[in-house]
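Thread: Modeling a multi-component assembly for a lab meeting

Hi all, long-time lurker, first post. My supervisor asked me to bring a structural picture of a complex we are working on to next week's group meeting, and I have zero experience with this. I have the sequence lines for every component (635 residues in total). Could someone generate the structure of the whole assembly? Inputs are pasted exactly as I received them:
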Amino acid sequence: MAVTTTPTAPRRTRLAEVTPANLRRRYLRDRVMIGLLVLATLVVLIPLLVIVWYVISNGIQAVLEPTFWTSDLGSPARALSGRETGLGHTVLGTLVVDGLALLIAVPIGIGAGIMLSEYPDHPLNPALRILNDTLNGMPAILKGLLAFALIVKPMGTFSGLSGGVALAFVMLPIVARATEGVLRIIPWSIREAGLALGLPRWRVVLNTVLPAARVGVVTGVLIAFARAAGEAAPLLFTAFGNNFFSSAPLRYLTGPVDTLPARLYSLAISPYREWHAMGWGAGVVLLGFVIVTFVVSRFATRQRHQADM
Amino acid sequence: MQRSATSAIIRAPTKAIYRRLGDNAFQTVVVGLGITIMLLAITLAWVLLRDGWEPLRIFGFLGFLTGTTWDPVQNDYGTWPFIVGTLITSVAGLALSFFPALGVAIFTAEYAPRWLASIIDTIVDLLAAIPSVVVGIWGIFVLVPFLQNNVYLPVYFWTFEHAPQLLPVLGAPAGYNLVTATIVLALMIVPYTAALARDSIRLVPRSQREAARALGATRWEVMRMAVIPYARGGIVAGAILSFGRAIGETMAVAMLVGNSNTLPFTLFGPAATMPSVIVNEFREAVENLHLASLMTVGFYLFLISLVVNLIAAWMQRRYTVGGRAL
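Re: Modeling a multi-component assembly
Sure thing. I ran the full set together rather than chain by chain. Output:
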């Protein structure tokens, strides 16, 4: 269809056909594709930013209320009659459960990461890598079922302890993978330098390799934390939920405890308008929690990149 | 501080017993922690199978898989409706999100100036971290009313007048339905797919692009002929991983899918998925067999996720070019 003005041009490949009409079509296609790519980017980013905007604009009022942070939820009647109500117990419970999850997941995850990177010849490593990836790919809800079967059933009660363990199951494989990844990029010569100084292997790992990889390990932990902090499914049948501050501090571990994602779910499906408003508020807090964690980890990574240069 | 610590270590006498004992103890601890993770993964499968054994014994492995009734009142259980719901929403969600995600990946990796690319990358990674329940509450109060009034009802009425033979497929518009769940799933996995595709596009060596450009290719032709074919394996593996995410995505779907346990599902009518039925019924399950059946659904969910993840891992290994892992 295109009139060939240079008859000597070989017709073997499309690229060799440099005729003006053909060229114009190719440039046009190039432009159209750029337009489509920009469109795709907007299509992806806009709805998600709209979600963030809706959550913040609907929930900010509830969050600015001081009682939101200081009092507990109580029965629906409290919210309906305008008496003071809030999610103070939920925030507290979330801190307990998430903190417990970190306490469990960080040592185990980092240990497994060290095993993968510092003992590369260990015969169990291939199996560990496969099983860790398997665990990572499993839906969080199944980890909740596991914590239910392992802890809730023997204890006979829903508890903050089981919630923390369930979230730790979510964090563990992420921490292990991230640790392995950052330890591996530490040059082998650093380890050799330590060994040449006569240090035993464990001091080399603890005193030279881990400090050098500190920022990366912390980033991995933060990413795992951001992921687990938003999970509601495993908490619904482990930490369960609670409308009040617990009577004794220990009850946060041994009794049912409220957490932000699970409470957000129950507020959202409740029939009360006042509770919906608090649900949006819980959404703001949860989103803030995740975003702050994320930004801190980003900041840490950026600093490391600058230090590298 | 670092320096003084190091010199203190060097000065310390390194007795053989300290070295041997320390190394052995350290290795034992580290390997023990590794084994803990391995045991966890195995325990997960074992516990789901153990607690879900009773329904498997009563209905049989295939019988439970293909059973189309889920009736806690009659104590008759089968997981087929939930498998259908899970597969429909996940496949449709992936189909809906794949090309936009690929577009974002190509745009940030190849076209956008560096500053813009890094902004978009950050936003995409951040959006991937939005908790499922937060998307769920937005879906309940914003998306569902909007779609019900502007899409479901008009489409339903139009079909009612012009193509009534399609009504059985469409179903009475309920707001909380398969289409809503699919849209929300697509929104949730799109940042994940985009990030994975972007990473594998970035791994394509410069020389590939330069060779194509040297032949006179336009930018898009470079993408189509040199970059995308090279990154294909990684992109597809990323899409399969996102599919695995979609299968296990629980809260947003449970809040928006409408929760109906009976086939056939219609586009605008309520449905259910495997995670959604576990979340919705687990806390209310009174009968032992009901609880066990939910565990069995969990076991099947485990098997499906396992297969999907293994396929993704296999694809990554198969198509990794030049020995670089993705």
